[in-house]
Design a protein that fits this description.
By secondary structure, this protein is mainly beta. It has one domain. It is 13% helix and 46% strand. The longest helix has 19 residues, at 2-20. The radius of gyration is 18 Å and the shape is globular.
């Protein structure tokens, strides 16, 4: 009986730790209401999988120090009439800086590309977030 109780406590702790690393939505429908400002550039119509609200916890590495940080990342790609817009959220290095708002990034079929090093792309039916040289992180649909 003590063994079973110990296992139950262990399971509860592991579930609690896992929930602590889950992603709480930072972008709301109110944030993406109305027209995107600025709208995105469109080199090629997007893969429909990219549309909607996506998020992940991305591990980024500081190149100078090798320090690793878990950063919540979200985006919401919308189409309004004949324009696309992407609302982006990133909480950098444990809250040192927060990026939030509409971005003038480029849609290129299976990819969303930027000049700053962010790439969001579709591979094998999944959506991934990539920052510079960090390994890509699989994203999950939110809402």
């Amino acid at each position: 009986m003590k063994r079973l109780a110990g296992m139950v406590v262990l399971v509860i702790l592991l579930v609690g730790l896992n929930l602590g690393m889950s992603l709480a939505a930072e972008i709301s429908p109110r944030d993406v209401a109305g027209s995107p400002d600025p709208p995105m550039k469109v080199a090629q119509e997007p893969n429909p999988l990219l549309l909607g609200h996506w998020g992940c916890i991305h591990t980024t590495t500081v190149s100078k120090t090798g320090d690793k940080f878990k950063e919540p990342i979200e985006y919401w790609l919308v189409k309004r009439e004949d324009q696309y817009g992407i609302y982006f959220f990133r909480n950098k290095r444990g809250g040192m800086k927060t990026y939030r708002g509409w971005r003038e990034w480029t849609l290129a079929g299976d990819r969303i590309v930027t000049e700053v090093g962010v790439s969001i792309f579709v591979k094998d039916g999944d959506v991934y977030y990539e920052w510079k040289k960090d390994p890509p992180t699989k994203m999950s649909r939110l809402e």
